[in-house]
Amino acid sequence: MATDTQGEIVNKIKQSDRLVTIDLQKFFDPTHRAGLDLKQFLFKGLILKEKEFRQALKEYDWSQYQDKYACIYCSTDAILSKWAYMLVGRHLTPHAKEVFKGRPEEVLHELYRRELESVDWSQYADKFVILKGCSDEERPVPDSVYLYATQRLIPHVRKLMYGEACSNVPVYRS
Fold it and tell me: pTM of the prediction?
């Protein structure tokens, strides 16, 4: 902070048009992500018996995934064929907004990446950029998303930081 000629405190950082804060939470997709563990369809949680698997899928209530991102995964060490995921996807497709392979928290990176692809990163050319550090539990930002944004920003920015303007960690300087 500096003082002007009248003794008032002037926040030069806040006045700078070269300092930009990016809040990655603004790119959060609020669509609910619902996980589907395939373990429940397997014999003893490990073995896929095709006839029983198909019957269990036929009887399952798929409506609970209506307009949600369905995230298919298996919490056991079962070895599943690609067609098993395809069959589940066949049942989910009429209900889910979209079907992913992976746990809901793993799919979060893909959803952020999709939103961040539309950003014109060159708008940050020669700027001092801070990637806002705090996120709330309702709109979590995975570490991998910070890494993705870092990779996109480095070719353009003069300086990249993490945190807040008053307390940041330098990451990169050109």
Answer: 0.79
